[in-house]
Amino acid sequence: MKFKNNSFLFLFFLFSFTLQAQPFCVGVDLNATETPVAYAPASGTTSLVLTDEGNVHRLDGVGSSWWSRNYNTPQATIQTDIIEVFNGNFMLMSQNGILTEIEPFSGNVINTLPWEDDPNLEDERLKTIIQTSDSGFVLCGSARKRFSATTDMYIVKLKPSGGLEWAKLLGGEGNEDATHVIETANGVLVVAGFTESFGAGSRDVYAGIFTLAGGLITTRTFGDASANITTGLIETNSGFLISTRQELLRINGAGNLTNVLTWTGFTAAGLVPRAPRFVLFGEVPNGTDANIGVVLFNGSAQVIAAQQLGTADPEIRPMRGTLLTSNEFAFTALRPGSGASPQRSVAVTKLDGGGLSCCGSPFSFTPVPGIFTQDTGGVLTDIITQQRNPVSTNTNLTPVINDLCFVPRLAVNDATETGLENMIQMHPNPANDWLLITLEIADQPATIVIVDAKGRTVLRQRAEQKNTQIDVSTLANGYYTVRIEHAADVVHQSLVVQH
What we know:
By secondary structure, the protein is mostly beta strands. Helices cover about 0% and strands about 50% of the residues. It has strands at about 10-15, 25-30, 35-40, 45-50, 55-60, 65-70, 80-85, 90-95, 100, 110-115, 120-130, 135-145, 150-160, 165-170, 175-185, 190-195, 205-210, 215-225, 230-235, 240-245, 245-250, 255-260, 265-275, 275-285, 290-295, 305-310, 315-325, 330-335, 345-350, 360, 370, 375, 380, 425, 435-440, 445-450, 455-465, 465-470, 480-485, 490-495.
């Protein structure tokens, strides 16, 4: 989304800690005409902000700009997502699928990853990218077959060095769009967005579950009479969670709906995992304006805290969220402004994952059980071998922008949480040759288990002392889950190995 008026861009970080540290704020002026379109974590405590001008700003842990570069080219004029990949570099994706690999310390371009799109496709609008456990990439968005008036979900799997591995269209007679994708711990891809072809409303949540090789396992539609679109997608130990603007859907690994929570007075914009908890963020009405609302859940989807950040300012629109470290999450919000001289600003808010009591003021958030329907409607079309005939005159191509841009492969614990996670420190993360885990536990020893992205146990070690050093030099680059077992308690932490 492009704003033509000149506005002042204000970026601030709000840090909160549950121990001795107190929250503080730092302001950074990036650019007066930019709007962020993606936000992602990078190594250490740094983060990446991608803007609608094609600029990437790398920020350090206190919000200061490390470097800023523009990456627009005649071939890639609209940049839509950026991630940190296993080798420590950054991968920037344009709307038409051009991938640019970036050196992290200088921001210099290393190369572009080539792949050939299907010539029978038009209006490709790729929105999100993840790196998969085999070091390849999955790109998701929407596309339209030539001579068709409607769009389908468009899912593309690339090889690690570029080159098309497979590509799928998923949809029906109306418009479909894929806005979120994750790879689960057992190597399954979950793609979510919206559908206008199936379900009960004008738009409903649409999800497809694929093998990493591209085989379709199942499709699911979730909705009611109102418009329902996906705003967030994260993995749990037994399946995954999908947020819409007014609902939270708990779905098992087979794709079946097991529980729905609904609410009023709050509009959700995204989900952020923080095992064993998760965070829902969005808008809280404030008179004629809105504040940022942050709701912290435990693994059983029970509300721990609900806080609003902001005052009687112009309306605030939360847009993107991400996990920065195992203890900190962050999200961006757009304040559009109003009046004859509107002042637009962007807030990046960084919070800890332990609690929200020091941040903002509480607001009433009471989820209640909801009634939702699901069906298995959906038609898979392989864009490599099949054609699709025009079946509708619906040309509504409005993209969904409230997507979660980066979802680390981090499971949310479905069991009721304990205080064990507050007794664990783990560093460095990302790890190279070794990992140090500190356990503030006075009694019996704990067991440390490291699980890879496919759910396989790659290391198991007993921790009988406060500090346990673990050799990870033989582990391949990638995402892992560290499971710490003590008595009846289990805590999960995310780990990245980068050699």
